[in-house]
Amino acid sequence: MARPERVGTSQSTVSYRGLRDWIEQVDKLGELLKVNGAHWDREMGSITQMLTETGKGKAPAILFDEIPGYPKGYRTLYGQFSTIKRVALTLGLPLEYEHKADIVKAYHRVMTDMKLLKPKQVKTGPIFENVLEGDQVDVLKLPVPLHHQADTHRYIGTADMCITKDPDADWYNFGAYRCQVYDEKTIGCQITEGKHGRIHRDKYFSRGQSCKFAVVCGQDPLLYLLSASPLPAGISEYDFAGGIRGEPVEVVKGPFTGFPIPADAEIVLEGEAIPGQTKPEGPFGEWMGYYSDDVVPRPYLNVKTVMYRNNPILTCAPQHKPVDETGLLKGIAGAAEIWKALEACGLPDILGVWNHEGAPATRFTAIQIRQRYPGHARNVLHVASNCMAGAYNGKWTVVVDDDVDCSDIDQVLWAMGTRFDPMTDIDIVQKAWSSGRDPMFLPGNFNNRILIDACQPYNRKLRGEFPKVVEVPEDYRAKMKAKFPNIFK
């Protein structure tokens, strides 16, 4: 069963610099697929889904080129985070793990021990190689895809980072929000209630002011990962990225917004949303695997500036029926923040946290603990399901003992099937935070949650009364591996 104590590192060594260097390193790992000639109209999205659904956690990152209607060298990148190895590369962590949850432990330790570093302002960068303003603005100069079969519009923002500024503080937030293209000068920006970018926009609108956005649609994968992470309010993701990398992120000043934008970004759109100006937005295939969101009027952005590098790379992450890359991305980033919240509440002996990709992600969270007192498991369940990282659109939260690998769904189901009593080991949370992404959402954007205590009953565990697990002891495992090395590779 699980042996979580073996793993963990507080060291992060990010070996690449920028998206292009990351792509080169992924290619050297043998995890990059180059495809020429796929069309922007559904073909790239369909190929990605077909490869991911059969990849079983080993699907490649896909770099599309020679897209019909666009110059050679105008590329799109899909599937950045379809494997744990590529997530680890992005975070500067070891590439191999005995258990999937071990990467969460390693990432959690880095985030706990690191020193935040603010970005470094520089005068210029590759992002200024092409700047379109005024009548020249045209987002469709870039190979923006129509991702899914039932999408009605092209979406330029899927694996993006939308930068907003708090009107009451010197705080820039990133969020991975979907951006529909209406025409060459107008894009959408869908933001769910409660997300930091939505709070910023609502503050401006409540004062009758427009809200500026810088939408980065091709960036260092670390910045994209952090933009999709449930990080605390008031601290910019730039500071976290600098801490993980061990050096500040270089930024330039956006010509329209004045916002700090990554100097080596591939594509950046600057614009503003104006109170009262809305357009119907959607439908779009979302991360739960459904076209579940109604088409409703939402604020849009008037694009003022389009910036891109020579031979730009548009990063894409169209969600589909699990498993897709966003399940792993959300799963690892969210699990690390849940772990942080559990420890912040003083809960002892948290050994592992994993958001299961097929659920997808935060819809099914499993936490591995060493029980220390009566009610320990219940405390963990309620904190994990109600902290910021676990609150949005969760469904199942399960706690298991230290002998169960929380990232192995078979072991979690075994614990649920043999240590869980449906009369006494279940709690229900009603009217929790949800959204239209959830096909089972309730009026008002609520949903209900189920909390499962799949640990051995504490009193029976304490007295040694629970049946003994059929297991091969550690010392005997080592003996067998030494005696038969050819069969245990």
Helices and strands in order:
Layout: H1 18-28, E1 32-36, H2 43-55, E2 61-65, E3 75-78, H3 84-91, H4 101-113, E4 120-121, E5 130-133, E6 155-157, E7 161-165, E8 172-175, E9 179-183, E10 186-188, H5 196-206, E11 211-216, H6 221-227, H7 237-245, E12 250-253, E13 260-262, E14 267-273, E15 278-281, E16 296-308, E17 313-316, H8 325-344, E18 350-355, E19 364-369, H9 376-386, H10 388-391, E20 396-400, H11 409-418, E21 426-433, E22 446-453, H12 458-463, H13 474-483
Parallel strand pairs: 1-2, 3-17, 4-12, 19-20, 20-22
Antiparallel strand pairs: 2-3, 5-16, 6-9, 7-8, 7-11, 9-10, 10-16, 11-14, 12-13, 14-16, 15-16, 18-19, 21-22
Helix pairs in contact: 4-8, 6-7
Low-confidence stretches: 1-9
| Amount of helix | 25-40%
CATH homologous superfamily classification of the largest domain: Electron Transport, Fmn-binding Protein, Chain A
Number of helices: 13
CATH class category name of the largest domain: Mainly Beta
- Report the principal-axis shape: globular
Quickly count the domains. 3
Number of strand elements: 22
> Helices and strands: which structural class?
alpha+beta
3D structure, described in words:
There is one protein chain. The chain is 27% helix and 23% strand. With 489 residues, it is α+β, with helices and mostly antiparallel strands. The chain folds into three domains: 108 residues, no CATH class; 202 residues, Roll (Pnp Oxidase, Chain A); 139 residues, 3-Layer(aba) Sandwich (UbiD C-terminal domain-like). The protein contains 13 helices and 22 strands. Strands 5, 6, 7, 8, 9, 10, 11, 14, 15 and 16 form a ten-stranded antiparallel beta sheet that branches. Strands 18-19-20-22-21 form a five-stranded mixed beta sheet, with helices on both faces. The N terminus is likely disordered. The chain is globular, with a radius of gyration of 23 Å. α4 crosses α8 and α6 packs across α7.
